[in-house]
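To illustrate the input format used throughout this study, we show a single complete record. The first block contains the structure-token representation of the backbone; no residue identities are included at this stage. The design step must infer an amino acid for every position from geometry alone.
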């Protein structure tokens, strides 16, 4: 038996750490099937673990109202970034993904020192590889010169 669902999802194309919550009306057998269909929609952050925010069962009247609202939403109908930038008050609809807020706060003194140590070790390794290259080139040239010197004598 088919039911009507409202599926709220994180929609993208506004930045890696940002999203726009959009509710989509869906006809499906259950909430899980409705969420799976919405995850495949264009503009939904497909690969984000928590892209589906909520799923509700709704009435037919609410379903038709949501379809009319989404048909009138310019964000869902723009085809390129230029059209998206022309949408008025789009910035007010943008939300931040909370996970990325926590990651930014973790940049402590210890973390920055760790990154500096890793970069320093990488630089030392690169210098070591360059020195090995030049030393092997010098020994190869010296060996070939000695072989040529023996041929002349």
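Output of the design step:
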């Amino acid at each position: 038996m088919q039911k009507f669902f409202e599926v709220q999802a994180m929609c993208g194309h506004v930045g890696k750490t940002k999203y726009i919550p959009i509710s989509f009306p869906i006809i499906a057998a259950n909430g899980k099937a409705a969420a799976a269909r919405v995850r495949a929609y264009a503009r939904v952050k497909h690969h984000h673990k928590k892209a589906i925010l909520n799923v509700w069962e709704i009435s037919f009247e609410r379903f038709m109202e949501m379809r009319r609202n989404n048909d009138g939403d310019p964000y869902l109908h723009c085809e390129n970034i230029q059209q998206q930038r022309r949408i008025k008050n789009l910035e007010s609809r943008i939300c931040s993904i909370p996970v990325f807020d926590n990651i930014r706060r973790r940049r402590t003194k210890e973390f920055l020192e760790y990154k500096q140590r890793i970069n320093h070790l990488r630089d030392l390794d690169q210098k070591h590889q360059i020195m090995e290259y030049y030393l092997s080139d010098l020994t190869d040239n010296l060996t070939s010169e000695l072989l040529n010197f023996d041929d002349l004598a």
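Structural context for interpreting the output: Strands lie at 3-11, 18-28, 52-57, 95-96. The helical segments are 31-39, 60-71, 81-85, 98-105, 109-152.
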